[in-house]
Design a protein that fits this description.
By secondary structure, the chain is of the alpha/beta class. The chain folds into three domains: 19-326, TIM Barrel (Alpha-Beta Barrel), CATH 3.20.20; 338-534, TIM Barrel (Alpha-Beta Barrel), CATH 3.20.20; 607-696, Sulfite Reductase Hemoprotein, domain 1, CATH 3.30.413.10. Strands 8-7-6-5-4-3-10-9 form an eight-stranded parallel β-sheet. Helix 2 (70-85) packs parallel to helix 3 and helix 8 (249-265) runs parallel beside helix 9. It starts with 18 loop residues before the first strand and ends in a 16-residue tail after the last helix. It binds iron/sulfur cluster. Iron/sulfur cluster binds next to loops.
Length: 712
């Protein structure tokens, strides 16, 4: 299953060494391990033991428990004893922030210690201070001195360690030299690895968590590359993958699936934790679904690689298709959207910096245009906060292409005025020379699926049809990755007119096929070609999360869409998302917008950055977040952080407009950006004070009569 990593067009699991955590082995060819964390008070032994047992019964393989001080660290012994009494044998991880002395005790009891390089022995006071090289080196040495005893103890006792960097809690020293960047996160972790390796200790696992999915993905990729540089060709340290402060409900699941799933797609990740602002037991099935999806992918990919190898001989590095890994190396660590040509589909602008558009493919509706339009209008009225922007209709077997106009007018009479594009088959012999306009409306674009067998004359005929119909053209390329360059060239050689086409791959193709398309376009000199991402959302009998109008989307479908679309969107690929749905229009469109927001490509609703809570939490985080959401969920585009404690608080709030952070029993600190604006606010008043703050800073709008600002 494992092979070289780093080639996004031929993903394979990254080669890692095996690290043993109690009875569980992480890395190598072992399955992706599922972890979670308790959110009880660690001193409440009964509640903590009960939650660990519940997690184990749900399928969690490793459980983390916070140890904020020596007391909690010592109580881990009692927790361990009670678990043994209950015959629960599950590895425990002590979560350490700020307290090396607690780590030293925990290392005597648990199977793994997690330290945060940002606060293990370094300062985190948001000081702006310049370090010259001598001062910087002296600081690194001071931190190493504090860290070394823990390394030696873990080594002596066979205890594993996670060096867990968080974007939100980088030390002042790292921040002042590297900023809150992926590079800073990686540098911070590697300083600690230097100490481990100097002592011959290698039972190390890394994590690079952030609530911003793009930052998390970039940091893991960069770390993988840096570790490979340190020891080329040697199986490296396993990765614990997660997106921190992902929030809860559908958005938490979507964000987690985007971040974790994208990395697993590329073979990065040996153990995962989904962080939801919910009962941690509910994290486990989500994590399982994400891990299983990746497991299936790598089984298929290793089979395909073998087959291809049998055909062409073993691939050499230089033979490999050049992709994002080589051509777009910077984008992996500082992602930005592809620069593309501007298209017009009806009145809708697509590409060239326009927001990533959301389309619905509605299939064969032209045989009964009036009925179909009525049904669709009702379904789309279920969308409260967002709007479908384009429809893709199949021309199917309808003899009269002018029927699309009838459908458009029926819809308009029901108050739904949208650009309409037509899907036509390449072999349709009875197509006219042009699709007739309808009452001043032209078809937005023509979409056709072609494959390696499609003749050049067919391509030319369809391109001319689009030109004469004053419509755009989208070519959906249904082919294997290695056929992509040839098909792209054939399309480009037979284009008609000056309007650039869009391109896509079928909804059934993997996201790696889209990457192959990006590379093929770049190599054909057509790097500015807009790309449509196509996603199928299918019904399934299993229970799922409520999305949009409350219709149930199966969790597997939600995760698949989030990974497949989110991974590409995080890399800046995609000018439109076209959803094909068997579960109704509104949930599919709503899901597309949520994924766009999770991938930081388009903001259409309030963004919540809320931690999963743990034993440090000073209030009921799930309840508090729900209360804040009730009052603020209409504030499109406003980012609000809700944190149980200060550990990651101010740092993650670099990304938030307003923050609500637990600071003591019943007390809250309020932030505007990173700045503290109110301390010691009684919890009972804190939500109203937060609303006041939002109002004072001009970001408040009344819930009624608001306009939807859907462009980010
Ligand atoms: S931010 Fe939340 S999850 Fe993180 S340590 Fe604080 S309370 Fe625990």
């Amino acid at each position: 299953m494992t092979s070289d990593s780093g080639d996004p067009l031929r993903p394979a699991r990254r080669r890692t060494r095996v690290v043993r955590v109690g009875g569980i082995e992480i890395g190598g060819d072992h399955p992706i391990r599922i972890q979670s964390m308790t959110n009880t008070d660690t001193m409440d032994t009964r509640a903590t033991v009960r939650q660990i047992i519940a997690l184990a019964e749900a399928g969690c393989e490793i459980v983390r428990v916070t140890a904020p001080s020596i007391r909690e660290a010592e109580n881990l012994r009692e927790i361990r004893r009670r678990l043994q009494e209950s015959e629960i044998d599950i590895p425990l991880v002590a979560d350490i922030h700020f307290t090396p002395n607690a780590a030293m005790i925990a290392a005597e009891i648990v199977e793994k210690v997690r330290i945060n390089p940002g606060n293990y022995a370094d300062k985190k006071k948001f000081e702006v201070r310049e370090y010259d090289d001598v001062q910087y080196a002296a600081e690194v040495e001071r931190v190493a001195e504090r860290f070394r005893p823990l390394v030696l103890r873990c080594k002596a006792r066979g205890v594993a360690m996670r060096i867990g960097t968080n974007h939100g809690s980088l030390s002042d020293r790292i921040m002042n030299r590297f900023g809150d960047t992926a590079l800073g996160m990686v540098e911070s972790a590697l300083e600690f690895l230097d100490v481990c390796e100097a002592e011959g200790y290698r039972d190390v696992i890394f994590s690079m968590k952030a609530s911003n999915t793009q930052v998390a993905i970039a940091a893991y990729r960069l770390l993988a590359e840096r570790l490979e540089e340190r020891a080329p060709g040697v199986p490296s340290y396993p990765f614990h993958v997660g997106v921190t402060e992902a929030g809860g409900a559908e958005d938490g699941r979507i964000k987690s699936a985007i971040g974790i799933g994208s990395l697993l797609e590329d073979g990065l990740g040996d153990t995962i934790r989904v962080s939801l602002t919910e009962d941690p037991v509910r994290e486990v099935p989500v994590a399982r679904a994400i891990a299983e999806r990746a497991g299936r992918l790598h089984e298929v990919d290793s089979k395909e690689t073998e087959d291809e190898g049998a055909r062409k001989g073993p691939p050499r590095r230089s033979d490999r298709p050049r992709g994002i890994a080589s051509d777009r190396v910077d984008e992996r660590f500082a992602p930005r959207r592809r620069t593309t040509d501007r298209l017009r589909w009806g009145g809708l602008e697509v590409g060239d910096g326009a927001p990533v558009r959301v389309e619905l493919e509605v299939g064969d509706v032209l045989s009964r245009p009036a009925e179909s339009a009525a049904g669709l209008a009702v379904e789309l009225s279920g969308l409260k906060d967002v709007a479908c922007e384009s429809l893709l209709v199949s021309l199917g077997d309808v003899g009269d292409p002018g029927r699309w106009g009838e459908f458009a007018h029926e819809l308009a009479s029901l108050g739904v005025e949208l650009p309409i594009s037509l899907r036509v088959g390449p072999g349709a012999a009875d197509l006219p020379d042009a699709i007739p306009a309808a009452g001043g409306l032209s078809v937005g674009r023509i979409v056709t699926t072609i494959d390696a067998t499609t003749r050049a004359s067919e391509i030319l005929r369809l391109a001319e049809l689009a030109g004469k119909s004053r419509a755009g053209m989208e070519w959906e390329l249904a082919c294997a990755g290695h056929e992509m360059p040839l098909l792209v060239e054939r399309v480009l050689a037979n284009r008609s007119g000056e309007t650039p086409p869009a391109m896509s791959v079928p909804a059934t193709a993997s996201l790696h096929a889209v990457r192959a398309l990006v590379v093929a376009l770049s190599e054909a000199g057509a790097a500015r070609t807009p790309i449509v991402l196509r996603q199928r959302v299918a019904a399934a009998p299993s229970a799922g999360g409520a999305v949009g109008d409350g219709t149930t989307i199966p969790e597997a479908a939600l995760i698949d869409a989030s990974v497949r679309l989110g991974s590409l969107l995080c890399d800046g690929i995609g000018d439109a998302v076209s959803m094909v749905s068997t579960i109704g229009a509104a949930p599919a469109v709503d899901l597309a917008y949520r994924i766009l927001q999770g991938a930081r490509q388009r903001t259409t609703r309030t963004e919540y950055i809320s931690c999963p809570s743990c034993g440090r939490t000073l209030f009921d985080l799930e309840e508090t977040t729900a209360r804040i959401q009730t009052k603020t969920r209409h504030l499109d585009g406003v980012k609000i952080a809700v944190m149980g404690c200060i550990v990651n608080g101010p740092g993650e709030m670099a990304d938030a407009d307003f923050g609500y952070v637990g600071s003591g029993p019943g007390q809250v600190t309020l932030y505007v950006g990173r700045e503290v604006v109110a301390r010691g606010v009684p919890e009972a008043e804190a939500t109203d004070r937060l609303v006041e703050l939002i109002r004072d800073h001009g970001r408040w709008i009344e819930p009624e009569g608001r306009e939807i600002d859907s462009d980010a």
